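Hi support team,

I submitted a single chain yesterday and got back a structure, but I'm not sure I'm reading the C-alpha cell output correctly. Could someone confirm the output below corresponds to the sequence I sent? I've pasted both exactly as they appear in my results page.

Thanks,
R.
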Amino acid sequence: MTTLPFPLTEDPDEASRERGRKFFAAETTFVKGVVAMSGLPPADRVEICFAGRSNVGKSTLINALTGRKALARASNTPGRTQEINFFQRDNLYLVDLPGYGFANAPVAVVEKWQRLLKSYLSGRATLRRAFVLIDSRHGIKAVDEEILTLLDGAAVPFQCVLTKADKIKAAERDKMLAQVRGALAGHVAAYPELILTSSETGDGIPTLRSTITGLLDQG
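Hi R., thanks for writing in. Yes, this is the structure output for that exact sequence:
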C-alpha cells in the first residue's frame, strides 16, 4: 500500500485527547496586541502562531481551540486583524498574526503589517511551530506561497491546518488534499502531516489541541 505524502494527522488516543481538553479548558487570556517588534512580550515560554490569508478563519479557530466565543475577534471583513495578538495559557503563548493577502486597508498599512510579520517569524527564538491555515474550499493559493517560502528561509517549522472542512463536499476533498500535498512538496520547513478542521462542527479541534500540547513536551 502506497503511503500518501502529508497524510492527515491521526486522531489522538484517549489520554492525549483528554490532556488537550484539560489544558485548553483552563482560562486563556489576552496579553497584548503588538504593532512593532519592540512591543513583543518576553520570550519566556513556548510559543506557537497562527498564520493565514485574510478571512481564512484564524480568530474563529483560536476561539474554538480555547472554548471561548470571543477571545479572538472574528470578522467577515478581511484584514481586520491589524497587529500581532498574543494570548497566554499557562506556559504557552498563542499568537494570532495579521492576515496576509487581500486586506481592506491602505497599501501602506498592509505593507507595514507584512514587514512586522516577516520580522516576527524570522526573529522569535521561542517559536516552536507556525500553523498555516488554508481554506479547504480553495487549497493553497499563490498568496500563501510567500509565507511558506518565508518560513522555509527562517527555518520555522510549519504545519498546514485546513479550515472550514464542513464547507467542502466529500467528493471534492481528495482533489483539494492532492493540490495541497503537491504545493507543500517543495517546502523544507513543512511538517509532514495535515490537520483538517471545522470550527463550526468541532471536527479536528481535539487533534489540534493534542498536537499543541505535544509541543509543550519539547520545552
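A quick pointer for reading it: The chain has a mean pLDDT of 88. Let us know if anything else looks off.

Best,
Support desk
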